[in-house]
């Protein structure tokens, strides 16, 4: 039973309902409730409240002890939607601008199809994860014993990808998404009159020097063969034209794929901040946080994903990883698996992820369902 035509229309309606009622990370109560309701209607074993608002559905078939996990994220973004679509967000300032509503619909569709086809031998765990957008919902699920309670030989995460045309599925062995770090540097002096600069350490001037030196870290302290990004995104200091401020704050982000490169960059930031502060008669403190690790695909799992993709669409080996981050990385640290990109771009184009004009392309729902099913049927072959 491979025909899923009858599933699409109800899933489009479900997806658009979720889109119209978006919820931020760890607040996905309505979304989680609707998912649990759908899973129970299929007769699945359902577990709620994992990682606060996460939901897990369990489907068993046959006698094999083998198992696989499939993950969809549920949360929305704190962005004001500007699509003017009939199913646009009804919640001001909250919007499914990353397509997680589509991910939920595709995984529910896979659960529906696998429940009725039963063309596998083993256990499928459907992971509906909260708080992917910067809050580490996957980390919380793992820390609460996700893979001890629901053991998996493989775990796969699927994300829509507007940079690829609809019908294309891509992944790669090794790094596929970057580690995400954030930092804030506080330069402190005592402040003083702007007309008497010789009597006051100038935190503004020191900040300008610091920004210049930080932007040279990648080109001068990291090997040209390595990949990394450092971006200064915030500078805050001063409140009027005739006062040299007592402090200036500088913030930014670092993206890497290798922990040694990550270590080198963090150490360089701390060293440069201390040196600039010393040279300018200031003190410096650095708050450096590594909030998402790099998403690293298991080579065998990535190949399994490409093999499954080739049976349902156009499979493509992704040539390069992306510097954006993904907390599915925490699941891949606990279980072998792969993160997969599902192309969704229409010929006429469309908005990128995290853009107020973005909307998930419902035309790829069927492909996402078939890919999930293919992953299960290949790994848990009868």
TrEMBL record:
<protein>
    <recommendedName>
        <fullName>Peptidase M20 dimerisation domain-containing protein</fullName>
    </recommendedName>
</protein>
<dbReference type="InterPro" id="IPR002933">
    <property type="entry name" value="Peptidase_M20"/>
</dbReference>
<feature type="binding site">
    <location>
        <position position="133"/>
    </location>
    <ligand>
        <name>Mn(2+)</name>
    </ligand>
</feature>
<dbReference type="Pfam" id="PF01546">
    <property type="entry name" value="Peptidase_M20"/>
</dbReference>
<dbReference type="InterPro" id="IPR036264">
    <property type="entry name" value="Bact_exopeptidase_dim_dom"/>
</dbReference>
<feature type="domain" description="Peptidase M20 dimerisation">
    <location>
        <begin position="183"/>
        <end position="274"/>
    </location>
</feature>
<dbReference type="GO" id="GO:0046872">
    <property type="term" value="F:metal ion binding"/>
</dbReference>
<keyword id="KW-0479">Metal-binding</keyword>
<feature type="binding site">
    <location>
        <position position="354"/>
    </location>
    <ligand>
        <name>Mn(2+)</name>
    </ligand>
</feature>
<comment type="similarity">
    <text>Belongs to the peptidase M20 family.</text>
</comment>
<feature type="binding site">
    <location>
        <position position="159"/>
    </location>
    <ligand>
        <name>Mn(2+)</name>
    </ligand>
</feature>
<dbReference type="GO" id="GO:0016787">
    <property type="term" value="F:hydrolase activity"/>
</dbReference>
<feature type="binding site">
    <location>
        <position position="100"/>
    </location>
    <ligand>
        <name>Mn(2+)</name>
    </ligand>
</feature>
<keyword id="KW-0378">Hydrolase</keyword>
<feature type="binding site">
    <location>
        <position position="98"/>
    </location>
    <ligand>
        <name>Mn(2+)</name>
    </ligand>
</feature>
<keyword id="KW-0464">Manganese</keyword>
<dbReference type="InterPro" id="IPR017439">
    <property type="entry name" value="Amidohydrolase"/>
</dbReference>
<dbReference type="Pfam" id="PF07687">
    <property type="entry name" value="M20_dimer"/>
</dbReference>
<dbReference type="InterPro" id="IPR011650">
    <property type="entry name" value="Peptidase_M20_dimer"/>
</dbReference>
